[in-house]
Amino acid sequence: MRRRPPPFLEEDLSEEPLINLTPLIDVVFVVLIAFMLIAPILDVDSILLAPSGSASKKETPPLQNGPVSISIRKDNSIWLEGKRVSLLDLEKRLTLERKRAPHMIPQMLPDASAHFATYQQVKNVIESCGFEQVDIVLRPP
Question: 42-52+66-138 — its CATH code?
Answer without folding.
Answer: 3.30.420
